[in-house]
Amino acid sequence: MAFDIVADIHGYAGTLTDLLAKMDYSEGEEGWSHPDRQVIFLGDFVDRGPRQEETYRIVRKMIENGKALAVMGNHEFNATAWMIADPTSSDNFLRSHSAKNRSQHASFLNQVVEGSALHAEMIAWFWQLPLWLELDKLLVVHAAWDEKKMNSLKPLLAPGNKLTACVMQRYCEKSSETYYAIETILKGVEADLPPGASFTDKDGHSRSQIRLKWWESGPSSYRDAALMAEAVVLGLADELFLNDPRQGHSDHRPVFIGHHALSGTPKLTSAKVACLDFSVVNKDGFLCAYRWSGETELRKENLLSVPVRA
Ligand SMILES: [Mn+2]
User: Residue 261: is its pLDDT beyond 90?
Assistant: First the structure.
């Protein structure tokens, strides 16, 4: 099977259909399809963008008609946790309904109407998304492939690597193995900057942690180890970092990830790991895909992208 792996969409349904059309998919009675290829979506269908319900409908229809596969992103996980009662937390929900969390989720809650039947339907569908896909010749996960952490989750997951109430409950304990496993898989591997160092993210928040190229290992500077937008990377120290959480990656299969909000013209991350998230949420961002046809070494000519449109 040949797959077109598509990055984080965040409600940009028009940009998604631009990308599908560019890859010679067409829309028929059964939704978008290609005669001999399938899409694999990397998650993060919702939050931020203008047409979140439509994005959900396009993706869901493709999956139900056997034209696509998908994994869960951290935004679907957070949307699910937002709805789960947690009597032990200060405001009774697994994901706190704090002002900060509500503002991050506001465009979704407004577009689907919080508490509506559509809201419940979408959350029920999010539960069905696998946390990762391990195929014969390729690996797909939203942010980081970590076999040890995946193995720790497997006994707690439903068949097909899907969330369960048990996983959600254990995730509540912020020091649990389950919490760290979910955080790594869906949000990536992070390291602290040197004491006193920080950068400002796109929402204006000061950050003292960077996201890492988790598949590498060995001595590295903060700058070389970071998997982040270019403007952030160039501002990082060119000195070796300590307390390195990276474990390398030995699986021979290529890995596709999203999540890391890279900037600039889409380019291939490496021959074995491709991050396809080029920030569709930015006005100069791109929605990016990789057209995979069985190769074990990824090739830059198989990357394809379209500029964002509302
Ligand atoms: Mn994400």
Answer: yes
- Specify the amino acid at residue 59: V
What is the value of pTM for the model shown?
Answer: 0.96
Cα-to-centroid distance, 293 and ligand 1 (Å): 25
pLDDT tens, position by position, 46-66: 999 999 999 999 999 999 999
Q: Using an 8 Å Cβ cutoff, are 141 and 277 in contact?
A: no
Model confidence pLDDT, tens digit, residues 69-79: 999 999 999 99
Q: Average pLDDT, stretch 259-275?
A: 96
Cα 186 to ligand 1 centre (Å): 7
Domains identified in the chain and CATH numbers: 2-187+252-307 (3.60.21.10), 190-245 (no CATH)
CA-wise closest residue to 142 among 291, 277, 4, 289? 277
Residue 167, CB-side half-sphere exposure with 13 Å CA sphere: 22
Alpha carbon of 218 to ligand 1 centroid (Å):
26
For ligand 1, the distance from its centroid to the CA atom of residue 55, given in whole angstroms, is: 16
Q: State the amino acid at position 70 in one-letter form.
A: A
Do 101 and 81 meet the contact criterion of CB atoms below 8 Å apart?
Answer: no
Q: Which helix (H) or strand (E) holds 32?
A: strand 31-33
Q: How far is the CA of 233 from the centre of ligand 1 (A)?
A: 19
pLDDT tens digits, residue range 193-207? 988 889 888 778 899
Distance between CA 302 and CA 286 in Å, rounded?
Answer: 15
Least confident of 2-6, 242-246, 291-295: 242-246
42 Cα–ligand 1 center, Å: 9
Q: How far does residue 75's CA lie from ligand 1's centre (Å)?
A: 6
